[in-house]
Amino acid sequence: MRSSDASHDSSFPPRVDALHQHVLSDAPYRVDAVAPPQRIRLTGFSAVFERYCNHLANAVCTFGSVSVRCECDQNAGTLQCEVPHAPPSPSNTLSLVAKIDDFQTPLLQLKTSTVVVHAHRALTDAIASPPPTPPPPCAPHLRLIDRFYSRRNASLLHQCIAECIGTMLIVIFGVGSVCAAVVSEAQTGLWQIAVVWGFGVALAILATNSVSGSHLNPAVSLAFAIFRPHAFPASKLLPYWIAQYMGGILGGALNLLMFGPAFANFEAVNQIERGSPRSVLTARAFGEYFPDPGNELLSTLSVNPAFAMMVEAWGTAILMFVILALTDHRHKLIKAQEMIPFYIGFTVSVLISLYAPLTQAGWNPARDFGPRVVAALAGWSSVAIPGPKNGFWIYIIGPKIGAPIGALLYDLLIHPGLSKHAAASSSTASS
């Protein structure tokens, strides 16, 4: 029976159209036209078909003419359907054919494709391997869209190395642009600095995304661990944080190495003693302060720690909201995936241009704390940590409050509407 012969029952959820049973000729255990490994568990006289799922509590599927209940394990991120075996047959190969029109997950997206899985009945809890050769152009295709989640095909060590390097690149580009502006009046305009920051973020994402998912921000990793645990388990949170903070320290050290003589000359010309209260004018190139010490128009503005933390949380919430929106494959306007890093970078640029005069726009604890540690060790001491208003902690706590809030708002306000829209589109197409 071909998948195209399957009848569609509109009473079933459109995300999972049907599971059909068919006995084929004997064949080795394999998965046809499926990119990542897919697990088939055969136990006794039932088979459990597992697929990653997203926010799907229950589903009704058909197995031939039999309706079966499929349950979604939100924690494991799997859809499990108890499927009866075929009647006795000379063949010892069981084939499950799943026609999936709109079954899309945070990790995988199948475009009106048919996935055929062949498995020997004697195998138990086996892991399938991808096909040795790519499918032809007309074959079903599967597209990875876990762009900003943790990748599953790289070891945790390599993912952490990528996070460290990516965060280091952000600091080199972004904090480096502030260093250049402080010591040489290059990119003196706020928008010029913001644009360099945005491009730096985009390039760091492009450089590391295929390995780690390019969080490059402890606040972003925290939000993914809370709201996307099937894609980024909490067990990876601490290793990612360590890697990101190390990347911030390395990036800050490299910036100090490059601009160290320029800072010394600037301090000598302007009679600034490093470590004195006035040295905040140069320390701001490494860490953030509120308000921006370099903005003469705001020099008399009083920004208290509570307001500064609110600004940091608010800006990070917007950033996280946009990240989830851009990486949600159900958005129809997001066509060119390779442009998503630049959209995120542009978001960072806009947020910097809006809020940098108030708090210097951190949004990233690793970007602030790493260079701040370097500055403290390089002679800025208490001006760097804890800072003139003892406010260094604001740039660590504020973003880690804001990112989960942004993710929560997206899941409450946008995500349900997209789910209903996708279901309605699938029902219209099937009718």
From TrEMBL:
InterPro entries: Aquaporin-like, MIP, MIP/Aquaporin, MIP_CS
CDD domains: MIP
Pfam families reported in the protein's UniProt record: MIP
Entry's localization field: Membrane
GO cellular component, one term: plasma membrane
Keywords from the named record: Membrane, Transmembrane, Transmembrane helix, Transport
Molecular function terms, GO-annotated: glycerol channel activity
Segments traversing the membrane: 160-183, 189-207, 237-259, 306-327, 339-358, 392-413
Membrane topology field: Multi-pass membrane protein
Family classification: Belongs to the MIP/aquaporin (TC 1.A.8) family.
Protein name: Glycerol uptake facilitator protein
Organism this protein belongs to: Gracilariopsis chorda
